[in-house]
Amino acid sequence: MYVFLFLKNNFSVVLFLFRSVEHTDGQSVLTDSLWRRYSEFELLRNYLLVYYPHIVVPPLPEKRAEFVWHKLSADNMDPDFVERRRIGLENFLLRIASHPILCRDKIFYLFLTQEGNWKETVNETGFQLKADSRLKALNATFRVKNPDKRFTDLKHYSDELQSVISHLLRVRARVADRLYGVYKVHGNYGRVFSEWSAIEKEMGDGLQSAGHHMDVYASSIDDILEDEEHYADQLKEYLFYAEALRAVCRKHELMQYDLEMAAQDLASKKQQCEELATGTVRTFSLKGMTTKLFGQETPEQREARIKVLEEQINEGEQQLKSKNLEGREFVKNAWADIERFKEQKNRDLKEALISYAVMQISIRLHLVWTNSYLCLSEL
Amino acid sequence: MAGGPKALPSTGPHSLRDMPHPLAGSSSEEAVGGDSTPSPDLLMARSFGDKDLILPNGGTPAGTSSPASSSSLLNRLQLDDDIDGETRDLFVIVDDPKKHVCTMETYITYRITTKSTRVEFDLPEYSVRRRYQDFDWLRSKLEESQPTHLIPPLPEKFVVKGVVDRFSEEFVETRRKALDKFLKRITDHPVLSFNEHFNVFLTAKDLNAYKKQGIALLTRMGESVKHVTGGYKLRTRPLEFAAIGDYLDTFALKLGTIDRIAQRIIKEEIEYLVELREYGPVYSTWSALEGELAEPLEGVSACIGNCSTALEELTDDMTEDFLPVLREYILYSDSMKSVLKKRDQVQAEYEAKLEAVALRKEDRPKVPADVEKCQDRMECFNADLKADMERWQNNKRQDFRQLLMGMADKNIQYYEKCLMAWESIIPLLQEKQEAK
């Protein structure tokens, strides 16, 4: 599938899709363009997060410019920033489209095809409620008794990754800032060499030429730093991806906790039931308390209670069984996606590092200096 | 080598040449190699107790003319003067700085090695040790005795203590190069190189004793210019000298600007370096978290480290080699402007006296002797200065060519080091991980 995004104006992003869909009869379908706002992208993502908790969902590009160095304004309307955002959104859609599971999602399909009412369609799924509870749960603190080591390690890794990439981006921004300063000050040479050449006879031409080269050198920094921003964007994507990874781990923790609570609850109910049946009171129960206070219950009452408990225990056992199953499914699917993600991450970051190195090499500014060297030898 | 101070006939500067040279025994010492330099204390003891060097006592041989003081001869010498090494007969090198720690002070001396076939030197080779104040002394003596010539500058005298460590290797080396340049410029000068003070500086075992004698070996011109009254004011500077003055003003201004820019660049580069030194290690930290990416990330970290080192070398070179030369030329042009002013004074006196004669309306059209003397003085001064300016322009061109090319070269080297660092990790990054 092919996705191209264009800008409409500063407030929206045009979604212009050339979508090639392979039908069974081998026909390709091209669709018209659609307009989508950034908030709709966010809605799509939130939906995916709720319905695919075991997937490491691709992240959106940053809403506001972070990790900027001084020349780049933190202005969201800055054309360079908007352009980079556009690329980021394009990338987001491509990631989903190339994901084996996410690409088949109906809502995603509609995002690409349904002009109007898409928002309503999403809301009709009732995902909002789930989204709220999910958010709440993710932020809650709780302790799992038997954590899965693989997930705790992974969560730890995602935290560390976020931390190290943030640090890297911060320092990189400072490095860019300083490098800019170095280049720009060299530009000052241009004028003074030119002025000096005016009072010289034989040296004049050489100095003039050298001055010119200093100007060229100084102005070359803008392109260099533009290329560097692209590298920073690639790192940022994985900074946000780390968060998505963490979310999967948290989800697992949540499920585990839920399971443990359910098991605990079931065990307690079984205990209660047993006590009622045998007449021994070992566990505290409100009923037991009130019985003590207000008098013994009749055998019929007791029978009724046992019956209720037995029903609850049955239900509880069913639930626990399905939760266990759910849990195992989650772990299986999540782990499959995590493996897929790991390979993608390694591939992508290696590529990013290679192009970063290539970019450093292609800054063949030593050629500028060589030129200046040659013309100075004419002095 | 006679013991005890002898009184030799006072025939002026030539008397030195008649003496057996005290270093005769040690002149075979090569300039390079063998650390046979006596220890500081021994050196001191030797200087003071040295009875070998006998100085002429007595006054200034005011009327003595040394061969090169005549302007006409000077002009001829300059025309024939080959800057080729082939016709050179005097070589001077400054090297081997040594620190001397004494009770009263600590200072550095430099070894001066001289090789010459000139008759003015008794021996073919000399090796002496001198400190900065000796160079300073030499320069004042040259200014005094050769006022019509442009005397090369010395590196800055005063160093703000605490800001710069005047015993650091870098500072001493920078100074040594500047002092070497100073002596070489004098060596290359057809008049200055024959100056008696210069000769003594290069050859005398005990320079302090010679200094104490306070010998003013003024050349004819030196003597003459010394007596120029400073009271006269010049109406207009002749065009050619005005042009030189203007040129020097602008030149010094531009150099000052370049100096400031260069300093600013070095400052910015150092700040950039600080950030780079933090940037590299973060990749290492990241590498520790990863499996397959560990090696590539570590590689990037090392690469950035190499670039940082290369940058540090660049900033050091700029500080040590580029800035001092700029500053030297600024000092040079300042001292040159003083010489121009002196020339103005000479001309002013002449013009005033000439005018006075004209006003006297005497029958004798003959110009009095003292006015003639003034004219002669002025013409010699102009000739000396013009010749020196031309020489200065040529040398300046060569010096700046070398300086600016050196700067470009250093930058090229820096970029090449960075290029190599990045190129070397590409294969590492592209390496396929073996299936684990």
From TrEMBL, chain A:
<keyword id="KW-0653">Protein transport</keyword>
<dbReference type="Pfam" id="PF00787">
    <property type="entry name" value="PX"/>
</dbReference>
<dbReference type="InterPro" id="IPR036871">
    <property type="entry name" value="PX_dom_sf"/>
</dbReference>
<comment type="similarity">
    <text>Belongs to the sorting nexin family.</text>
</comment>
<dbReference type="InterPro" id="IPR034783">
    <property type="entry name" value="SNX4"/>
</dbReference>
<dbReference type="GO" id="GO:0031901">
    <property type="term" value="C:early endosome membrane"/>
</dbReference>
<protein>
    <submittedName>
        <fullName>Sorting nexin 4</fullName>
    </submittedName>
</protein>
<dbReference type="GO" id="GO:0005886">
    <property type="term" value="C:plasma membrane"/>
</dbReference>
<dbReference type="InterPro" id="IPR037430">
    <property type="entry name" value="SNX4_BAR"/>
</dbReference>
<feature type="domain" description="PX">
    <location>
        <begin position="1"/>
        <end position="118"/>
    </location>
</feature>
<dbReference type="GO" id="GO:0032266">
    <property type="term" value="F:phosphatidylinositol-3-phosphate binding"/>
</dbReference>
<feature type="signal peptide">
    <location>
        <begin position="1"/>
        <end position="26"/>
    </location>
</feature>
<keyword id="KW-0732">Signal</keyword>
<dbReference type="GO" id="GO:2000786">
    <property type="term" value="P:positive regulation of autophagosome assembly"/>
</dbReference>
<keyword id="KW-0813">Transport</keyword>
<dbReference type="InterPro" id="IPR027267">
    <property type="entry name" value="AH/BAR_dom_sf"/>
</dbReference>
<dbReference type="GO" id="GO:0031201">
    <property type="term" value="C:SNARE complex"/>
</dbReference>
<dbReference type="GO" id="GO:0015031">
    <property type="term" value="P:protein transport"/>
</dbReference>
<dbReference type="InterPro" id="IPR001683">
    <property type="entry name" value="PX_dom"/>
</dbReference>
From TrEMBL, chain B:
<dbReference type="InterPro" id="IPR027267">
    <property type="entry name" value="AH/BAR_dom_sf"/>
</dbReference>
<feature type="domain" description="PX">
    <location>
        <begin position="88"/>
        <end position="209"/>
    </location>
</feature>
<dbReference type="GO" id="GO:0015031">
    <property type="term" value="P:protein transport"/>
</dbReference>
<dbReference type="GO" id="GO:0000422">
    <property type="term" value="P:autophagy of mitochondrion"/>
</dbReference>
<comment type="subunit">
    <text>Heterodimer; heterodimerizes with SNX4.</text>
</comment>
<dbReference type="GO" id="GO:0032456">
    <property type="term" value="P:endocytic recycling"/>
</dbReference>
<keyword id="KW-0813">Transport</keyword>
<dbReference type="Pfam" id="PF00787">
    <property type="entry name" value="PX"/>
</dbReference>
<protein>
    <recommendedName>
        <fullName>Sorting nexin-30</fullName>
    </recommendedName>
</protein>
<feature type="compositionally biased region" description="Low complexity">
    <location>
        <begin position="62"/>
        <end position="72"/>
    </location>
</feature>
<dbReference type="GO" id="GO:0035091">
    <property type="term" value="F:phosphatidylinositol binding"/>
</dbReference>
<comment type="similarity">
    <text>Belongs to the sorting nexin family.</text>
</comment>
<feature type="region of interest" description="Disordered">
    <location>
        <begin position="53"/>
        <end position="72"/>
    </location>
</feature>
<dbReference type="InterPro" id="IPR028649">
    <property type="entry name" value="SNX30_BAR"/>
</dbReference>
<dbReference type="GO" id="GO:0000407">
    <property type="term" value="C:phagophore assembly site"/>
</dbReference>
<keyword id="KW-0653">Protein transport</keyword>
<dbReference type="GO" id="GO:2000786">
    <property type="term" value="P:positive regulation of autophagosome assembly"/>
</dbReference>
<dbReference type="GO" id="GO:0034727">
    <property type="term" value="P:piecemeal microautophagy of the nucleus"/>
</dbReference>
<dbReference type="GO" id="GO:0061709">
    <property type="term" value="P:reticulophagy"/>
</dbReference>
<dbReference type="GO" id="GO:0031901">
    <property type="term" value="C:early endosome membrane"/>
</dbReference>
<feature type="region of interest" description="Disordered">
    <location>
        <begin position="1"/>
        <end position="43"/>
    </location>
</feature>
<dbReference type="InterPro" id="IPR001683">
    <property type="entry name" value="PX_dom"/>
</dbReference>
